[in-house]
């Protein structure tokens, strides 16, 4: 319990945002973790040097550790650029010094690769020049190994060489893993949020905001898909109907537009439920008009489906502010003529709709 509390405080401290709000919090966190891991290396090797009676080396470790502590401090101030520069300079200085003294047996040279990954993700202005410079240093160290012997032979350090090597591998891997996972996790989260956002945009663009069923744009897309199926020979028939709510204006004038909106929402929900499962599709076409499309159904089959919908409309109770409203609808239905355009087919259905209005409403004209 107490350990968890302290761990939470440490995490909050490391993940604290920098003073300058223009600085990226991610940059600050990675920079701090890199400093802490490198400080841990220098602290551990400093103890090793002290135990093996190499005080001057222990002093060097402490000096570089203090520089990292200052770098860590700068990340909390408005000095992020200074902290980034200090991280690179400090790391290069002690890596080169340790490499010259001990050679490659301690593995310190690989900290340069860890630093390259950190710089690649943090540096925004001149990342290529910086990374090429670090690679040049690494190559120079390799060439130096071929021409110069280390100043301190392995026998001088004894088992400390193995200790330093293992410590180097562990902390280098820790730096690379933390940096990579931290940024990768963030990238995946961002990608997931973008996918959700794009899906929401697609839903909003394709849905009528009031009734939550398809809008005109979505229905036109669906018609295009059906036409492609027809031309591929994947279906033979298609029927189209336009439905208009009878005396809808009277509802708005008498009970208000909010009541009219409730009528539209309730009927749209009914249409959506009745056209699912391959029966057809429905969209709000405009005002109180709805367009129905019955894929792979001839006119007679579509009439049967539409008749069932009409029956349910007539039985539907639409409660609003203590009153129950009953509505009727008139439909114009036509079997789709694939030799005509969509607009021409819609006009055929629309003409039949108006005939139904003229002949008493609450009917399907086919």
Q: Helical amount among residues, as a percent range?
A: 55-70%
Order of helices and strands: HHHHHHHHHEHHEEHEEEHE
Give the end-to-end Cα distance, rounded to a whole number of Å. Answer: 75 Å
Overall mean confidence score, pLDDT: 88
The biggest beta sheet, please? 5 strands, mixed
* Count, helices: 13
Structural class: alpha+beta
Give a quick summary of the entry.
The chain is of the alpha+beta class and 366 residues long.
Would you write up a description of this structure?
It is a single chain. This protein has 366 residues and is of the alpha+beta class. It has 13 helices and seven strands. The protein has a five-stranded mixed beta sheet, sandwiched between helices. A two-stranded antiparallel ribbon has the order 4-5. Helix 2 runs parallel beside helix 4, helix 2 (25-51) runs antiparallel to helix 8 (160-206) and helix 10 packs across helix 11 (257-274). The longest helix is centred in the middle third of the chain and has 47 residues, at 160-206. It is elongated. The relative contact order is 0.07. The mean pLDDT is 88.
């Amino acid at each position: 319990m107490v350990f968890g509390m302290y761990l939470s405080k440490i995490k909050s401290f490391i993940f604290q945002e920098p003073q300058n709000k223009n600085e990226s919090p991610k940059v600050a966190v990675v920079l701090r973790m890199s400093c802490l891991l490198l400080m841990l290396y220098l602290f551990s090797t400093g103890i090793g040097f002290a135990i093996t009676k190499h005080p001057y080396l222990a002093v060097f470790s402490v000096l570089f550790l203090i520089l990292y502590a200052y770098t860590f401090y700068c990340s909390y101030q408005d000095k992020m650029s200074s902290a980034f520069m200090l991280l690179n300079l400090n790391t290069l200085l002690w890596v080169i010094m340790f490499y010259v003294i001990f050679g490659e047996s301690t593995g310190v040279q690989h900290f340069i690769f860890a630093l390259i990954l950190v710089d690649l993700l943090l540096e925004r202005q001149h990342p290529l020049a910086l990374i090429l410079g670090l690679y040049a240093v690494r190559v120079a160290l390799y060439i130096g190994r071929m021409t110069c012997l280390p100043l301190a032979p392995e026998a001088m350090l004894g088992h400390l060489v193995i200790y330093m090597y293992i410590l180097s591998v562990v902390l280098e891997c820790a730096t690379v893993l933390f940096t990579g996972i931290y940024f990768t996790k963030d990238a995946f989260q961002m990608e997931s949020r973008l996918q959700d956002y794009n899906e929401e945009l697609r839903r909003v663009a394709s849905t009528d905001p009031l009734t939550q069923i398809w809008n005109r744009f979505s229905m036109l897309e669906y018609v295009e898909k059906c036409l492609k199926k027809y031309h591929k020979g994947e279906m033979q028939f298609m029927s189209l109907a336009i439905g208009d709510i009878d005396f809808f204006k009277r509802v708005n004038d008498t009970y208000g537009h909010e009541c009219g909106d409730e009528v539209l929402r309730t009927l749209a929900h009914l249409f959506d439920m009745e056209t699912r499962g391959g029966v057809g599709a429905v969209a709000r076409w405009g005002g109180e008009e709805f367009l129905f499309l019955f894929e792979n159904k001839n006119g007679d089959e579509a009439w049967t489906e539409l008749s069932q919908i009409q029956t349910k409309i007539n039985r539907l109770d639409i409660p609003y502010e203590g009153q129950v409203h009953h509505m009727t609808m008139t439909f114009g239905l036509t079997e789709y003529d694939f030799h005509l355009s969509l607009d021409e087919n819609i006009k055929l259905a629309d003409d039949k709709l108006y005939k139904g209005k003229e002949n008493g409403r609450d009917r399907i004209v086919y």
